[in-house]
Amino acid sequence: MAAVSESVVPYDLAHRWWRIRHTQGHVYWESSADRQQWTELRNRATPLDVDELDVSFGAQAWGSFIGPRHVSVESFNAP
Fold it and tell me: What would the pLDDT profile of 62-75 be if each residue is shown by its tens digit?
């Protein structure tokens, strides 16, 4: 099954930090500029057991760039 993108959020420092959390049968996608105040971008009911999910991250850039580009993931927490 192919992934479906239902939301596009352009990069902005207001979205510097991302959080994906699960509580009471819902998954919440949130962003923050400072990791203190979070803005909900989307939430969905979970029709399956999220403890059985595997998560992966990726990055992509478009356009002409000079020199190498780097992506890093910091503060990745998984229970």
Answer: 777 777 777 777 77
